[in-house]
Specification:
The protein is of the alpha/beta class. It has helices at residues 19-30, 55-65, 79-93, 121-146, 162-167, 173-193, 211-217, 240-252, 266-273, 285-294, and strands at 10-14, 34-39, 68-73, 98-101, 153-157, 199-204, 263-265. It contains ten helices and seven strands. It has a seven-stranded parallel β-sheet with strand order 3-2-1-4-5-6-7, with helices on both faces.
Length: 305
């Protein structure tokens, strides 16, 4: 029998209820990790998004994949709840090896393609709180536990690499700021964690087929290609498992420090580590978006998978 690469490792995936966070937790579990899956949506009650996915389901999927899943209902905007979460991890495990800040939950708040003077302020500020403050609160309490041992990893999940976001308007001032801040947060944490032999990385999926996105396109994972009738570029999309495998690959890499402070995509890491999406392909979503969608370069989706 071969030992799974993350056996004995403890991970916290903050924002693991659905989408990227859920599959990051699952793929860490598949590599053998014990994963604390947190979020606001639980069988005890839903968050303001009012969606059916729960953290308990995520934890069960982690365990089914070969790890140990532990669901903890946490609002990461409430410092006392995050403090108690980290104290529990410390008491139960005595260590934290991987922290993934994937908290978002603001899709319903974003107003697209309106200038700042036409943006409603309160939903915009709530977006920033959900997207940025939650990550800072979580790092504030979790990093003292993570740095007890060398080799710890922090992954900030956003939308768009630093290079892409620096060159593109993200269609809303609040969304733009949120995703830029997440990348910068990884950069700043890299400087703070480096002396402790720990690593911080900003990671973005490509066009991710989350539960919400599948519903938006009126498709399922089984017939997702039918979404191309609505937008042909949807054929470059990827499952949430792809970015999950990217995080698992980073966590298993003893040389992960080479990524400290970097901003990368799931497609970039797939080329380095050799993992694939569930269908065996290696979609490079942001390269496709940059070169074909935004850059006007002739290209077929198949050339980027």
């Amino acid at each position: 029998m071969t030992t799974k690469p993350l056996s004995g490792k403890i991970a916290l995936v903050a924002g693991a209820t659905r989408g990227a966070g859920r599959q990051i937790a699952v793929q860490l579990g598949a590599a053998g990790a014990t994963v604390y899956a947190t979020g606001r949506s639980s069988r005890a009650g839903r968050s303001e998004l009012d969606r059916p996915e729960t953290i308990e389901e995520t934890a069960e999927l982690v365990t089914a994949a070969g790890g140990t899943g532990i669901a903890v209902r946490v609002d990461h905007l409430v410092p006392d709840q995050v403090r108690d979460l980290v104290a529990r991890i410390d008491a139960e495990q005595g260590r934290l090896d991987v922290l993934v800040n994937d908290i978002w939950g603001a899709d319903h708040l974003v107003t697209w393609e309106k200038p700042v003077w036409e943006q409603p302020l309160e939903p915009g500020f709530r977006t920033l709180r959900l997207a940025v403050d939650t990550h800072i609160v979580t790092s504030h309490f979790a990093l003292p536990l993570l740095i007890r041992r060398p080799g710890g990893l922090v992954v900030e999940i956003g939308d768009g690499t630093r290079e892409y976001n620096d060159a593109h308007y993200r269609l809303s001032v609040f969304y733009d700021l949120a995703k830029t801040c997440v990348n910068r947060l990884a950069f700043t944490q890299a400087h703070e964690l480096g002396p402790h032999d720990c690593t911080a990385v900003a990671l973005t999926p490509g066009w991710i087929r989350s539960e919400f996105m599948l519903e938006h396109f009126g498709v399922t994972e089984e017939n997702w290609r039918d979404g191309a009738a609505k937008d042909p570029h949807f054929l470059i999309s990827e499952t949430p498992a792809y970015v999950g495998r990217a995080v698992a690959a980073l966590a298993a890499d003893s040389g992960r420090a080479r990524w400290n402070g970097k901003s990368v995509s799931s497609g970039e890491l797939a080329r380095v580590y050799g993992f694939t999406d569930l269908d065996g392909s290696q979609p490079d979503g942001f390269r496709y978006i940059s070169e074909v969608v935004d850059g006007g370069k002739p290209g077929d989706v198949a050339d980027y998978r």
